[in-house]
Amino acid sequence: MKRTLHITLIFCIAIAVIAGCRKPNNSRTTDINTGPISTGGQPPTFPGGTQPSLNQLFKELRYTPEVKCVTAGILQVVTFSKGTSLTFYPNSFKNAAGTTITSGTVCIEMIEMYKPGDMIANGATTTATNGGLLRSGGQVHINATMDGQKVYVNKYGITFKQPTASTESMYLYYGNTDNKDSVVTWTLGDTTGSGVTATGTMVDTSTAYHQYVFDSCTDFSWINCDRFYYDPAPKTTIKIIMPNAHHNGTTSRVYFVFPSINSATQAGMYYSSTNTFELGGSYAVPTGIMFHLIVMTKIADDYYYYELKDQTVTMDMTINADMSLHSLSYVQGKLTEL
């Protein structure tokens, strides 16, 4: 009898071990309102107010640069697919040592961002260094090379195509490339640029071509056509509550899009104690302005997305981000619509 009980006990233990080692069913249905399945252990957290690097995490959303090559040392104009034009002068290009390049082929890599969805996809915003919102006439990222070596600039002209005419002046802002993540803030650059578009310029006999023209741009990299947006309304923060701790400062981006001024700003303040993102301090926004909320999370190969459109900023707003699992192409399509 004792031998039989002993064998039975061993058999039960073996069954329990096998059951415990069996892999759980982690299959998921797409496009459902749920947080990600735990990857084990505690999710990484950061102190309130810090912003981790997310460039590599969301690199699949970035646009492929358009490339056009020009000849150094002569006057020439090159126009890209969304309407941005660059005018290069005989002395526009220089090498790393500061010597002007007067011959040879320079290849220009261009990313054009004229809508908030373009800016979000490429990790850019329209927020000035003082936290103020900028009314955008478009922004670009430019890189120049010759024979595989980076080329720098003395000065060149840049033109931003516009959908309508305007009497409102614009200014050049240069992107802050010193931060770890994206181009979050912009610094006012060339204040002498002529950005007046009263009647527009005709590109042919039938099409009106409205544009902001700057004849002295002194930087490659991130360039923004903007003006500061002033609103006398009271300013406030907006808090976004994430569904669980896996949607956090290392996996998520939160953006506010303001369609009336073609602007997008990022909530860079993450507080692990409450699992919230926030626009805070000098980055407060005016009450009464209409906005869209865009929230993106990526964990491993999974994208989670949430948007809330046509909302009006009220004092001390709090919004719950009800994240849904989606494909990369779905997220790209949503950003294109903005």
Protein architecture, described:
The protein is mostly beta strands. The chain folds into two domains: 59-228, Sandwich (Chondroitinase Ac, Chain A, domain 3), CATH 2.60.220; 235-337, Immunoglobulin-like (Sandwich), CATH 2.60.40. The chain has helices spanning 2-21, 116-121, 328-337; strands spanning 66-71, 76-79, 85-88, 93-94, 105-113, 134-146, 149-150, 152-153, 156-162, 171-175, 186-188, 201-202, 208-217, 221-228, 235-236, 238-241, 252-258, 263-266, 269-271, 276-279, 285-286, 290-299, 302-312, 317-320, 324-326. The strands form six sheets. Strands 1, 5, 6, 7, 10, 11 and 14 form a seven-stranded antiparallel beta sheet that branches. Strands 2-3-9-13-12 form a five-stranded antiparallel beta sheet, with no helix packed on it. Strand 12 and strand 13 (208-217) form a beta hairpin. The longest helix is centred in the N-terminal third of the chain and has 20 residues, at 2-21. The protein is globular, with a radius of gyration of 25 Å. It starts with a helix and ends with a helix. The relative contact order is 0.17. Mean pLDDT is 80; it is low at 1-52 and 192-206.
Could you name the key traits of this structure?
about 350 residues, mainly beta, Chondroitinase Ac, Chain A, domain 3, Immunoglobulin-like, 2 domains, 7-stranded antiparallel sheet, 5-stranded antiparallel sheet, 3 helices, about 40% strand, disordered N terminus
